[in-house]
Amino acid sequence: MNELTNEIRRRRTFAIISHPDAGKTTLTEKLLLFGGAIHVAGAVKSNKIKKTAVSDWMEIEKQRGISVATSVMGFDYEEHKINILDTPGHQDFAEDTYRTLTAVDSVIIVIDTAKGVEAQTRKLMEVCRMRKTPVIVFVNKMDRDGKDPFDLLDELEQELHIHVRPLSWPIEMGSKFKGVYNIYEEKLDLYVPSKQVVTESIEFKDINNPDLENHIGSESSEKLRADLDLITGVYPQFDIDAYLAGDIAPVFFGSALNNFGVKELLDCFIRIAPFPRPVVATEKTVIPENDPFSGFIFKIHANMDPNHRSCIAFLKICSGKFERNTNYKHVRLDKMMKFSQATAFMAQKKETVDEAYAGDIIGLPDTGNFKIGDTLTAGENLHFKGLPSFSPELFKYIENADPMKTKQLNKGIDQLTDEGVAQLFINQYNGRKIIGTVGQLQFEVIQYRLLHEYGAQCRWESISLYKACWIESNSPEALENFKKRKYQYMAVDKQERDVFLADSNYMLQMAQQDFPDIKFHFSSEF
Ligand code: G4P
Asked: Which of 4, 262, 341, 358 makes the best surface tag, with the fewest CB within 10 Å?
């Protein structure tokens, strides 16, 4: 293997996703501890945004600003380079999370054993399923009483629509929690409630060995043996290819807070999780280790200082090697650019990067050159697929509140929507601009930023909309007919794609029923 291939294949780029409070921050911190990237517990600032009143979004943005530094945490563990991509904790920024998921090769989902599958996890899993992202589940907080593990597995299958396969199994839970049997490595891990100590695993290949009683007592031994029998009977053998294809999710149990079960998770993760995978572009499939440098922008983070309209554009490297001060092609602008100040993210610090490889994320200082989805290459014209927009959940008409500043307003709307703060639709019937978001907060973010960065004032007008669906049809006549019949409800997005604005679920269902030749999509890529 040459050096480049070696560098790329040792990379594991993933995101941890969860419903707020399930333990994402705690788990991230423990992973960093193992990587030696930090040395004490409590060093990772929670990216969780504390519950604040809506009008307090400035505070939230400040907290998000802090989280830029920890947006990507890279560290070395054994022979691997691990890149953890952090995702915002606040559900109003779910769109950010969706996009982050386009830049990872796999995902770890954290579930709270007492709460099971929660709303945000369900949504994020939809994105993973769509992209066939390999998923590992970590059931957290086993030191607390929770749901029966078998019930939880059923719930995971039903709610997340994925097959599961336990690779570790809890021995009791809550105050009686004794540890886990590591099915994957055939080891017994005994639990010591401590936030710093990692217990030594005991080789335990034969679970019927009477020595088990000496470790966990006869009652728990009996139960564990029965549980494991059931698991072998009900669940197929773990198949790594099925995991890599996104069809089956291995499940681990543990307690992140007590640093229990985390090392097992990490050790299995580095063995089974994928290294950077081929990425599909419109022109061809890009092979990380064969193709020259290429990458795409998946996130843009604005500097909240109104005096500096500067941003950081996050680039996921898809192939080859990035080098400092080298000319690369910004495909959309058809322009060569070089970067002397690109940053790499190592654990908690940002540092200027000289070189980075496929799988890595780098931050590029940006003064308005980049949009979400932009491609940088060594010279080729490539357009990466798989950066869809998702149907927003809230919609408002945006109106100009200061007629002298129309130009500024339009420019602001254009740039902020390029940055991915929200989506813009133009109603074809009345020509009005509609802003779609996943959370109430973004409306305030936009209003504030329009005023402070562009000197423009906007006013929101409510509009009753249920969903915006991207539509297509194999039959151009059917499409034209639909657009004519529904002209009041038709809009275009920024890329001029046709969008149907349904004002209720009923209306959408009727449209689907009445126009069988039209396909309705809830994300912009189909
Ligand atoms: P999040 O990033 O997913 O939102 O969750 P976070 O890690 O911040 O964890 C949420 C709460 O759950 C925290 O408590 C954390 O200490 C606790 N927690 C995480 N893992 C475990 C575990 O394995 N067992 C138990 N019992 N609790 C766990 P908090 O009181 O909200 O915050 P803090 O004051 O402890 O930081």
From this structure: 341
Residues sharing a CB contact under 8 Å with residue 31, sequence separation 6 or more, in sequence order: 82, 84, 262, 266
Ligand 1 pocket list (CB less than 6 A): 18, 20-26, 46, 48, 89, 140-141, 143-144, 255-258
For domain 279-377, the CATH architecture is: 3-Layer(aba) Sandwich (3.40)
Find tokens 């020509």 and name the residue: 431
* Distance between Cα 206 and ligand 1 center (Å): 35
DSSP H helices in 68-197: 94-101, 119-131, 149-160
pLDDT value at residue 52: 43
Domain ranges of the chain: 3-46+55-70+77-170+237-272, 279-377, 394-521
DSSP state letter for 55:
G
- Which residues have CB under 8 Å from 176's CB, separation 6+? none
Q: Do 223 and 148 contact (CB within 8 A), yes or no? A: no
Closest residue by Cα to atom 21, ligand 1, is: 257
Q: Is domain 394-521 classified as CATH 2.40.180.10?
A: no
Residue 310 CA, ligand 1 centroid: distance in Å: 34
- How far CA 68 is from CA of 74, 300, 369, in Å, comes to 13, 10, 19
Same fold for the pair 3-46+55-70+77-170+237-272 and 279-377: yes
User: For the chain, which ranges sit under pLDDT 50?
Assistant: 47-55, 66, 69
User: pTM of the prediction?
Assistant: 0.85
Domain 3-46+55-70+77-170+237-272 annotated CATH 3.40.50.300:
yes
Tell me which residue of 473, 463, 474 sits closest to 520, measured CA to CA: 473
pLDDT attached to residue 303: 62
Q: CA 264 to CA 196: how far, in whole Å?
A: 15
CA Rg value for the chain: 25
| pLDDT recorded at residue 73 | 85
Atom number in ligand 1 closest to CA 48: 4
